[in-house]
Amino acid sequence: MILPPLQYLRPRSVPEAVDLLSRVDGSTVLAGGQTLINMLKLDLVAPAALVDVHRLDELRGIELDAAGTLVIGAAATYREIAESPLVREHQPAVSTMAGGLVDRQVRNRGTIGGNCCLNDPANNFPPLLTALRARFRSTGGPIGIRSAEDFFTGTLATALAPDELLTAVEIPALPAGTVVEHAHLQLAADSWAIARAVVRLDVGDDTVSDARVVLGAVLGSPLRLSAIERALVGRPVDATLPQAADEAGALPIDTVDDLHCSAGYRREMAHVQLRRALRAAVERSTDVDR
């Protein structure tokens, strides 16, 4: 399909990109373009201009700050993230996620910032970064840094203003003993997700000291299961954790039927993925102790 008429703008710096976003009405950011271009072809979006930030070195770096926080530039590609020794050492779940995305072509072009700013409910990174307590650094707006809960606001929506640019994703250091596991059900290995679950357990003395449990692909934004998190804290890390999650009550999911499955099936599959992620977290924690 032929793209609609639009301007293509390539800024030479982050300040210039923010200036273009503020001056050119109807402009939007082009990062990797792996989903945006398809949306343009399907007439789902109609920006007047694309501001291409993919080649800005200011947005491509990956570094560890003095506090141990991993700082990933918004335009870092999935391949760069997967191959980074810093990411592999300090946030292995992020490295694994990036390395397993779709295919080589997408990993070479797709960016973590584009994945998050699009906030497609089926996307991989938003629920994982929510579980990791990630922060989102931006320029051009009054806030500058937002938590994941404040950043993701709904289907294909974030808190960023039209003239605001995401510059980096900050992921705080993991405490010793922390395990992070992800489980999902997809239509195919490289296709849309029906349901995702991410479990993060902070473990000390074989006991859960803190927990983050997040679902993806069930609502417009990542869904934290606070009641289940509270039910897990203080419990021993053993095979009873999935049962403890069940006893916390039904999953608070108010989803809808769609082309791929019914709302009831998605709710059930979210429950299945949660149990799988919890079992994997228990197994990983046991392996670490060994």
What report would you give on this structure?
It is a single chain. The protein folds into 3 domains: about 5-50, Uridine Diphospho-n-acetylenolpyruvylglucosamine Reductase, domain 2 (2-Layer Sandwich); about 55-170, 2-Layer Sandwich (Uridine Diphospho-n-acetylenolpyruvylglucosamine Reductase, domain 3), CATH 3.30.465; about 180-290, CO dehydrogenase flavoprotein, C-terminal domain (Enolase-like, domain 1, 2-Layer Sandwich), CATH 3.30.390.50. About 35% of the residues lie in helices and about 25% in strands. The chain is of the alpha+beta class and about 290 residues long. It is globular and about 55 Å long. It has helices spanning about 15-25, 35-40, 80-85, 85-90, 90-100, 105-110, 110-120, 125-130, 150, 225-230, 240-245, 265-290; strands spanning about 5-10, 25-30, 50, 60-65, 70-75, 135-140, 145, 150-155, 155-160, 165-170, 180-185, 195-205, 205-215, 225.
